[in-house]
Amino acid sequence: MTAGPLAVLSALAVALALVAAGLARDPFRLIRAAFALQRWALGLRQRHLHAANHRWVYAERRAADPAAPTLVMLHGFTGSKENWYPLARALGRRYHLLIPDLPGWGASERRADGTYGFSEQAERVAAFLRAVRPDRSVVLLGHSMGGGIATLVAARHPEQVSHLALLNAAGVRFRDNAFGLAVLAGDNPFAVHDAASLRRYLGTVFFDRRAMPWIPWPFSAALIAKRRADAAFEQSVLDRIGRSEDSLRPGEEARHLRQPVLLLWGGRDAVIDSSALDAYAAEIPHARRVLLEECGHMTLAERPRAVAQAIVTWIEDTAAAPG
Question: Of 3.40.50.1820, 3.30.70.860, 3.30.200.120, 3.10.450.50, which CATH number belongs to 28-317?
Fold first, then answer.
């Protein structure tokens, strides 16, 4: 016996009502489930620890070779550990991967009395590294805001960082663009509060529309609700990293770096203009430079295979096996 059209429609209506009720209670639940599925598919395990007075959530995947270098990946502003998953897929099991949600972001703890600028986060990351790899240095990768943080970690705690890779990194003055001018004016050009602003945000960080993630309802609704709830926090962080005395500190301290450094940018980056690559290179003359033409800000998701190849070649050329 088969259900008639009315029964099917009734069941569908009940299912949609349950989805709507679930979203009302916890809008981000669906996206967390999707992230968990991605981790499972990539062989990543979600782990937790306490460091620097914060609860950290991070993803980990062991390498095929236990002696392989450890890569620690720091995401950017408004991002999370999941931003690195396309690169994790491209790298395979060549390296031991540790991919945290930075404090204040993703599933890691955010404290009402906390400050989350470059300097504060750098000291928290140093504490995280002491907790997860107390006896070995790591290859530290940072994207965008995470690049500014990673620069300070490597400059201030060189014993913890054997190699540093900066992808579209913040922390230096670059050629004026619409994004940078909006930040200096006190705006948050990444703000998301409805479907139109979500599309604008994705269009800003991605140049290649083919690489842009498709976010259907109800996932889009959940993401918009989360970003609305985070608006005040986002603004406070952007005030700190974009227009305070801390905003150019990574570039100022980059001159102290002695580790091998990789500078990788997208030639069509509409967020942190590729002139920032030259600004960092002026402070780190020994750095290797890679410019991916026809690629935007999200190099790690837009061109993950090219980024992976650049990282692998750089590590092999500089004999990067820590310990």
Answer: 3.40.50.1820
